[in-house]
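As noted in the main text, all predictions were made from sequence alone. Below is one such record, for histidine kinase.
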Amino acid sequence: MFQMMTGMINNIFFIIFPIVLYQMFAPAGKRNFFVSHRVTLTVLFSVSILLCMFFPYQFLTDDYIFDLRQVPMIVGALYGGPLVSAILFIVSALGRMVIGGDGMYIAILNQLLLAMGVPLLRPFYMRINRAGKVGFVFLITFLSFFFNLIAGYFLFGDPIHDLIDIWLLLMLNQGAITALAALLIEHILRQEYMLNSLMKHEKLETVSHFAASVSHELRNPLQSVKGFLQLMQEQEYSREKRLEFQGTMLEEIEAADQLINDYLLFAKPVQKQLEVLKVESEVEQVLKVMKPYAHWGKVEIRLAEFHGSAKILADKQKLHQALINIIRNGIEAMPDGGTLDIAIKERKNEVSIKVKDAGNGMTKEEIQRLGEPYFSTKSKGTGLGMMVTYSIIRQMGGEIQVSSEKGKGTSFTLSFPLV
Ligand code: ADP
Ligand code: MG
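Prediction:
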């Protein structure tokens, strides 16, 4: 009994380990089982299949040597689809041939049926709720065992005894563990979904928060165009004068157009894409979007000169979102206005962006709580900005350093590995 338990626990560990490893090492926001990292996951699942097969356990009596290889096969097929399923089948079939012995053909046939059948059920599986999913994996397990039982009886004349005390228990055993693995994956997927929707929500909040300052900023060029038009209505001007007015009006309209473009570019929904980006031009783009808001808050943004062409690998929109959150906090930390200093520095193999304000600063406790969801000291704050920023920067393999003194100001330094 004791041996059976340890054997079983080993098998469960073999199954859980790829999922836990994935949860630990895949970047937050991207743990979408087999959508990205398909190859890594297929390799990990193959390893667990082989481990399960080579370290089987006795189930209740000496007659039944059992292992849980079907669990990664079923879960892999459900989440990974036909291709992953085919590869997992090949791995398990080869493994089974190495082990040999009687029952080999039934086992391989059974695995083949699983590997072909389960991916067909995937679209249905993806649509049902969690309770449905648990029932569903039990059903697959049941069918697979049923096949073994029947095939054994007809092909080899294996008696169908031990029906309740062994087969049913085995089935429940494997069904429960498959359900456990599926639930674990569902849990991780749900967490990722929540994190991603929080990011979207936080971005929308920023976009709508900027709306007032952007429309305020748009009013200037409109007023100026209106003024010129009125002037030209009041009296006749020389052709030269008229051309001059029209030139200025065109410039104003272009500035307004550009402002709207920058704003909309930032407001656009997030598309996940990694690309090589030039740090300086990204910072400049962000500053354009921030300009109306800074202006509105009587803050002057100064970008120190940078002579370099540091490039990093990042998701453009996310990088912008992170920078905007930090710059926005800097502006908001100076309610009476002031200057915000931004400097880019390139070192051996990394580049840093420093954002320094002369605002109200933070205590040690506040610095420690930075990035905690819903931690905010502002009456209308969401406390999501820094949480999102931290997860974005971590996703990109970057780091954030904070130094702050209450009443003096704060500086945030983001550093990223260079490409
Ligand atoms: P919110 O801006 O909605 O409050 P954030 O997650 O962006 O949420 O920031 C959390 C908290 O961290 C802020 O409420 C503020 O207390 C503190 N904080 C962040 N940046 C600064 C800064 N530059 N200066 C002072 N305090 C800051
Ligand atoms: Mg904020």
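The mean pLDDT is 91. The chain is about 65% helix and 10% strand. These features were considered when defining construct boundaries for the mutagenesis experiments described in Section 2.9.
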